[in-house]
Amino acid sequence: MQDILFQISGYPEPTPTTAIEQAVRFASVVGGKLTGLTVQAEFRVKDNALANYLIGLNRLAVEEEARSRQACEQALADFAAAAGEREVLRDTLTARAELFTIEDVVARHARTRDLCIVAVGSNLDGQRAIAEAVIFGSGRPVLLFRADTPDLVSQGLNTVVLAWDGSRTSARAMADAMPVLKLAGQVRVLTVLNEKPDARPGLGADAVRHLQAHGVAAVADEIDSGGKPIGTVLDAYNATHGADLLVMGAYGRSRIREFVLGGATRHMMDDPKTPLLLSH
Questions:
Q1: What is the pTM of this model?
Q2: Residues 6 or more apart from 159 whose CB is under 8 A from it?
Q3: 220, 208 in Cβ contact below 8 A?
Q4: Which residues of the chain carry a pLDDT beneath 70?
Q5: Per-domain residue ranges for the chain?
Q6: What CATH number was assigned to the domain covering residues 3-146?
Q7: Helix (H), strand (E) at residue 144
Q8: What is the CATH number of domain 159-279?
Q9: Which pLDDT score, from 0 to 100, does residue 54 have?
Q10: Which residues pair with 36 in a beta bridge?
């Protein structure tokens, strides 16, 4: 993964320096170069004499744009310094877009990268929408991690879990993640049984064969869902095996502004307890 895009937020909440440091460390571990992208928010308001009189609408829009611009500039400067120190800096990019179209700008830039990294924080920071837009709109894999938890390759890539159900999306995820899987100390190909009709015993054997053909140290594992939601099962499995990264296919589809996600995808994106590489 030589050409990695890192989306850096400036509004409504700027990407924290801890998240920047994690993204930079990941690029260093995989031997890639990072391009940092910030998109400054624009607030195009219609001229409204009453709103300007009552709340100063135009003034508020100008102030919020200035806040976004300053936050983006500062975050991008922090990124450039951190990436330069680790010698993983490829480029810095700045764009402008209306607030609710920022995710489309990020998705377009991600289409010509090997990977897009998105750090998520609170439910109100807009990062979830950006991650969804990149997953379903870029055709490229997305690395998702929590901005406030320093767990992205903090211990290296000792154990990577590949969620495998034999589907097209899981095959795509395996292929997209191959450069990372080759660096892992161990890849555990996990099939959750009694959750999907096609997820049958022995399903992971051929995936292990393919990974081993690429020099990846891989083993197959199976676990019964026990009637629990698959997201809960994956969380427990990752915790038990000390997973440094979970690779899985993203189920769902996009309809203009509405994203319809599969249950496991939604669960893992809502609260990625383990750094998550998603591919659609």
A1: 0.90
A2: 184, 185, 186, 187, 188, 241, 242, 243, 244
A3: yes
A4: 45-57, 122-124, 253-261
A5: 3-146, 159-279
A6: 3.40.50.620
A7: strand 142-146
A8: 3.40.50.620
A9: 47
A10: 6, 92
